[in-house]
Write a structure and sequence with these properties.
single chain, about 290 residues, alpha/beta, 12 helices, globular
Length: about 290
Amino acid sequence: YENLEDINGIAFKKGKEIIETNPRELLTGEELSSLPHPFYDEETKRKSLAGVIETSRGCPNDCDFCTVTEFYGRKYRTKSIEYITEELERIKDLGNFRFYTDDNFIGSPHKTINLLEAIADEGLNKKYGIAQVTIKLADYPELMKLMKKVGIKFLCIGIESINNESLDELGKPYTAEQNKKAIKIFREYEFWNHGLMMFGGDKDNYETFKETLVWMNENLDSMELFPIIPGPGTRLYKKMEEEKRILSKDWSLYDGHHVLIRPKNFTPYELQNRIIEAYQDFYSLKNNLR
């Protein structure tokens, strides 16, 4: 290329101006299935706690805060079953459990069913598995049974909120009632429910905080409670930037544990303390024993 501006998917500085070129085309499922398998040296193999694998990219949902859809797009693409089973065979002795890193492991439920059947048939279901899912999993009994069959018993669930106004504000496609019903179903199937929650939106206040904390204590096995993060490139970031509510652009603070948006119903300091209090309450000795 003679001109950097002809290369899609990059950003560069030209004088004092930052140039962003046109987005690059997303890799197709076929292209993803031709990527080289990850390399693990002997030290990594010896020290790894988990074998990590990606089976898909993208998410059909389009939440306002989500950086994954900005990075990998909404179009859901899956790697081939042959590619995935080959990788699982390569890492079968790596670590004590399997972590499926897909942001939405069940983005295409029927494809996931086919994959899980192949994993079981190949005898690659000997390790405990962790997967990130949406509450739509609760609509597919066969899929839940197969996940348990291949050892996936720990669910990281993007619940975000049990308040309908907050869910609407975040652009979530599910209701509070759907969230609560799904968690009950997951409990019936004896999954470990690890809830991924968000707090600090314009519709959140002291009452919704108390309600959320009580519900988490009664229904989740473990949880992470994040202040809402304005991920760069997201619609949320653009909105907060326009309203001049972003408190810092120190990217080292964008780890999910720091209040970065000026909330409407708390001071930033109050919100930060509320989240710390929620962790202390949920993971208290008394609660853990219960």
